[in-house]
Amino acid sequence: MQVVLEDISSVVKKLAIEVEAEKVTAAISKAAKEVSNQVSVPGFRAGKAPISMIEKRYWNDIKRRAEEQLVQNSAAEAIKEHNLAAIATKDLKAGELTKGANYSFSIEVEVLPKLEINNYSGLKVKKPRVEASEEAVGRALDNIRQANKNLVPVTDHNKIIAGDLVVADLHITEGEKVVTDQFGVRLEVGKSHLLPDNDALLNDREVPSKLDEEVTYPADFENKLLAGKKVRVELDLKELKKEELMELGDDLAAAAGYENFAEMKAKVEKEVLDQAAKESEKVLNDNIESALIAANSFEVPEALVRDRAGHNVSRMLEQFAAYMPNIKQNLTMELVENMIERNLPIAERDVRISLIVSEIAKKENINATDEDVNAELENIAKESAQPVAKVRSYFEKDNGLEKIKSSIVSKRTLELIISKAEIEEVDPASIEHDHDHDHEHDHDHAEDSADK
After folding, report:
1. Listed residue (168, 170, 173, 169) closest to 232, CA to CA
2. Which strand (E) or helix (H) includes residue 447?
3. Using CA atoms, how far apart are residues 89 and 87, in angstroms rounded to an integer?
4. Does 33 map to a domain?
């Protein structure tokens, strides 16, 4: 076999291969025998028809099988001979297959780039200063106020206006069929999932009063029990109320389950600080990754990027399926492919970081032991409230334990890089952080997975 290797790029190599006639003849004979054992020829028992007859009748099938065997075996031998770190093959250009003659073809091989990562010490990056700002604490306290709103009677008007809540009895019928019968239901102008165009139905109505109307619901109405139906709506509007926020103080704290306002505020400040610390760490990791990419330029194999994008989209759809069970039924191949195309830039970043971090881990001799993996499994079990044995059983599938080990190595490598970096703490508001990248770990969904 003769092989000519051509460098298309640092990550794409072209192999021009010529296979000897003897191997071609052997491949054709093997393919012909396979076909002979699988087809029925009148007048002959299975596998007993003359090979010349089989070759004549089923040449296209024999030729396809022989070509596949020759390309697969010869390409694998050439890849091994030239010590190529092959990821994928593409762009096969095959010559004509003829019995007793040499067979030539060319194929492109995507390979891992040969990396020499030296620029990872002293990276200059910024991270948000961890602080519980007055604005952040104020927003958190406002959320508590919103969650503990009081309903109080409206005293300054008796006609419904935007923002009012109406306490009413609601009776909806379709002919003789009762669709819904509710007492003391709260309705708000423009926001009810029970009434179509309830601005028109409720706005400016006096309270108390009664309403009895024929109503047609739009076909796309959010309440599917009512969508597209013509029904009779009877409303007995009883009370007009409004939401009132409690003032910051001990009464609000008591309503939220705290002993007093001081305790509640201290808890809120701690939660704001914890969240700020998590966000600061995430921004720092993203900025470290960006700095690594900027400092180390190399080509990335297209196959790795597309495979990663497919993985990202698959995980995204799994997450959506948790609260949108029918999502996969509405997917088309074209839609999935569009999602993958849009994910390619994120996937390329993922691949670059993975290759860089892996190379640095080798240089720094960073690894993870079985004990490290066991500790991580125990942590996952604790977080997911599952027995360790069940979690281990899940991760023993599909090379999951190796993925955990790889995740540990990546985390330790990034910690080393961060320890060598020049980090400037800045005002959180001054950092432009628009990279939408979720640091993924192979055990992210251990809780859900262990439940399956």
Report:
1. 173
2. helix 446-451
3. 7
4. yes
Residue 56: closest CA among 5, 99, 15: 99
Q: Which residues contact 153 (CB under 8 A, 6 or more apart)?
A: 239, 240, 241
Q: Is 133 a member of any domain?
A: no
- Is the same domain home to 306 and 427? yes
Shortest CA distance to 404 belongs to which of 441, 438, 379, 366? Answer: 441
Contact 382, 439 (CB under 8 A): no
Q: Name residue, tokens 């939220």.
A: 256
Beta pairing class for 165-174 and 177-188? antiparallel
Other residues' Cβ atoms within 10 Å of the Cβ of residue 427: 11
pLDDT in tens, the chain (452 residues): 999 999 999 999 999 999 999 999 999 999 999 998 888 888 777 777 888 888 888 899 999 999 999 999 999 999 999 999 999 999 999 989 998 999 999 999 999 999 888 889 999 999 999 999 899 999 999 999 999 988 888 888 888 887 788 898 989 898 888 888 889 888 887 676 677 766 667 778 888 999 888 888 888 887 777 888 888 989 898 988 888 889 999 999 999 999 999 999 999 999 999 999 999 999 999 999 999 999 999 999 999 999 999 999 998 888 887 777 777 777 788 888 999 999 999 999 999 999 999 999 999 999 999 999 999 999 999 998 999 999 899 898 888 899 999 999 999 999 999 999 999 999 888 876 544 555 444 434 343 444 44
Does the CA dihedral 382-387-392-394 come out positive or negative?
Answer: negative
Q: Is residue 107 part of a domain?
A: yes
CA 267 to chain centre: 33
Cis, bond preceding 208 (omega within 30 deg of 0): yes
Strand partners, 126: 424
Burial 295-310 (b: 16+ CB within 10 A, else e): ebebebbbbbbbbbbb
Q: Strand 422-426 and strand 124-128: pairing?
A: parallel
Q: Which two tokens stand for residue 151?
A: 């309903």
Structural domain count, the chain:
3
Domain that holds residue 185: 150-244
Helix axis angle, 400-419 to 261-295, nearest 10°: 90
Q: Are 102 and 19 in contact (CB under 8 A)?
A: yes
Q: Are 313 and 343 in contact (CB under 8 A)?
A: yes
Q: What is the pTM of this model?
A: 0.72
- DSSP letter at 331 equals -
Q: In the numeric block, which tokens belong to residue 158?
A: 């008796």
